[in-house]
Amino acid sequence: MMTQDSGNTLAIARQAFAHFEQGLATGDWQAFFELLTDDFSFWFPIGKFSGLNVGKARAIEFFSYVSEVYDQGLKLTVDRVTSNETTVVFEFRDEGLMRGEPYKNRVAVSFDVRGDKICGYREYLGSDGKSN
Questions:
Q1: What are the sequence ranges of the domains in the chain?
Q2: CATH assignment of 6-125, among 3.40.710.10, 1.20.1250.40, 3.10.450.50, 3.90.199.10
Q3: What is the pLDDT along the chain (132 residues), one digit of tens a residue?
Q4: Fewer Cβ within 10 Å of end Cβ, the chain: N or C?
Q5: What angle do CA 19, 39, 92 make, to 5 degrees?
């Protein structure tokens, strides 16, 4: 069984997270999308994307929707990063405007890494959307 180097996993996930952060701030997701595998899957806890979603096209639809909801962007503050050989979890606080209303939250996202790409994403929300 071939195992992946956890240092490589962390480096790839950090690069992807930097592009993820840029996407949230600016709505420009292209660099993030380029790091996703074609069979990328993601899990989201609420709304029209609730549950398991499969495919890069579905991910593009989701993250584009996120940029519509937060059309002025979100600012992130990373609190913690945890990793193993295949998965990296980023815990952060985000804030901005959600459809024009003040928004703050605590979020954890995990990136599953295969080779030099992100093959999976899971997101967990931690507050009422107005505090962090």
A1: 6-125
A2: 3.10.450.50
A3: 445 677 899 999 999 999 999 999 999 999 999 999 999 999 999 999 999 999 999 999 999 999 999 999 999 999 999 999 999 999 999 999 999 999 999 999 999 999 999 999 999 988 665 665
A4: N
A5: 35
